[in-house]
Amino acid sequence: MRDGPPRPSPAILVAGGNRRNLELLGRSLEADGWRVLTAACMEELDRALSVPEEIGLALVDIAGFGRDIWERCESLRARGVMLLVISPRRSQAIQQESLAHGARGVLVKPLSVREVMTLVRGLLRE
Amino acid sequence: MENDRVSTGISGLDEILDGGLIPGRTYLVRGGPGTGKTTLGLHFLVSGKAKGDKALFISLGEPESSVRRNAERQGLDLGGVSFLDLSPTPAFFAEVETYDIFSPAEVEREPITRRIVEEVENLKPSRVFIDSMTQFRYLAADPFQYRKQVLSFLRFLVERNATVLFASESSSEAPDDDLQFVCDGVIRLNDAPEGRSLSVSKFRGSSFLGGRHAMVLGGRGMEVFPRLVPEAYRKEFARETIPSGIPELDELLHGGLERGTVTLLTGPSGVGKSTLGMAFMKEAAGRGERSVMYTFEEEVELLLARCEAVNIPAYIMVERGTLAVEKIEPLRYSPEEFACAVRREVEGKGSRIVMLDSVSGYRLSLRGEDMTGHLHALCTYLKNMGVTVLLVNEVEHITGEFRATEVGISYLADNIVFLRYLEMQGELHKAIGVLKKRLSDFERTLREFQITRYGLKVGKPLVGLRGILTGTPEWTRPPG
Question: Per residue in B71-89, is it b (16+ CB within 10 Å) or e — as a string?
Fold first, then answer.
């Protein structure tokens, strides 16, 4: 799966407050052949959303963002971007909130690299 | 036999392991903090240098500079030992943001594994020490993964012809019992109030010396003193009798003392027990044989001077190598260490008479428990080696009802020779007698005993006296 040719597919937006997390997740996705955009704060997220770039999937780590992150989730849905929320813990409230704002599902940290890669491949091949 | 073994670099441990480690296998070194796991690993790596073995130290906890510094302090030259330092750098702590998106197992394992594989493929070491394997536990998702990873890592090294020693830290939260199953041998290090010790609990494909062995960590690194197993030593020797050189005393003993026996010289303080023992050593020196005396109380200088005063040329004997006098400082040695020192004298320097002055000094000066057991083992070993053993035993009572020895000692002795004070017609006299002699008959009477500046003097048998053992004998008929 690694070192495969880059897929001529839409980019993946990875957002979250922790740069080290973004770097690790981004590196894993790139190693799997995806194009990755990252956003470490609300401004960066807004900038990423303002560019007319084809984004297929957004992975949003809600840790590090305020409540206004839900609004951005809504706009992602409006753009037709698939959304997965990454939550720091297993929580009913976060689950409901995420699904209500357009998330396909919620991933709880720590993630397994292999699971994420399989999931992403599955979703973007749909 | 020894040629196909890999030395651990510690002679005592090699002896316990029946020559050393078996090459191409994996060995676990267990023990709490400060028990010497790293030191043992360093000895192992350094000792390969003489044979041109390539050695690799894989450090997961302690930085290379610190390991090198400690090795230097212990007199171990790490030149020629390669290092793979995988310990965390200070930068790791300074990183403000730590990740939580993936588990550490997923993030850290891969780069560490890659570096190890690269280093091993590159260097092709034949000796590898991993300090410590416990670090991998935190890089595995669960105990199953951990075990599998350790097994596969060890196989990776062994397939490349390495002999592997790996340390593990054992604590209550993270016991390392599982690691004992994945290796070919287990060396356990222990630090207890009565002294450090080492034991081997598993050694596939070889016999080994079981039980606890004394171990010392110091300026010369680690030293191991194997438990003395007397049965393992046997030497052919002539069952001859060695005389004291004092005709009356030899008459009393029907010739002298036999080789390969233990003789207890017993008596009250100051009566001349050590001097009596020295008489045998003086005679042995005349035959060109070496004797060794271990003194637990008296200073060497004083003892030698005292010998000189009674016509025993101790200084010349020491000079010629027919006598060694060693002062054993209190609480400095364990019984195993002491036994090793005695073995060096007997096996290395061919000493034929060994005297311990005294039994109570031995008991009090050495560290540890079960002193009678250790003394028994030492005496049995010496007997097997054909050494004449003299044990000095002090009894508290100057006169009065006779008491040969303390409880628990006399069974060790083949011969018991006693010295005692007698009061005869208002004068203090000394007498010598034999209570037991296993290999020959002996005179049943006492003889008068004197220490003069011309040497020991033993008189004619004291016949016609009654109540000798009370200390105040009476004549059964008038002297004359």
Answer: beebebebeebbbbbbeee
Structure tokens at B194: 């009565």
CATH number, domain containing residue B310 = 3.40.50.300
Q: Look up the ipTM and state it.
A: 0.81
Q: Are B101 and A61 in contact (CB < 8 Å)? A: yes
DSSP notation for B169-184? E--SSS--TTHHHHSS
Are residue B250 and residue B317 in the same domain, yes or no?
yes
The range of the structural domain enclosing residue B91 comes to: 2-226
- Nearest chain A residue (CA) to B104: A110
Contact at CB, A20 and B97, closer than 8 angstroms: yes
Q: Cα distance from B87 to chain A (closest Cα, Å)?
A: 20
pLDDT tens-place string over residues B321-352:
999 999 998 888 889 999 999 999 999 999 99
CB atoms B97 and A19 under 8 Å: yes
Chain B touched by A20 (CB under 8 Å): yes
* pLDDT at site B477: 65
Query: Any idea which fold A11-125 has?
Result: Rossmann fold (3.40.50)
pLDDT in tens, B166-184: 999 877 777 788 888 889 9
Q: Which residues from B are below 8 Å from A when comparing CB atoms?
A: 95, 97-103, 106-107
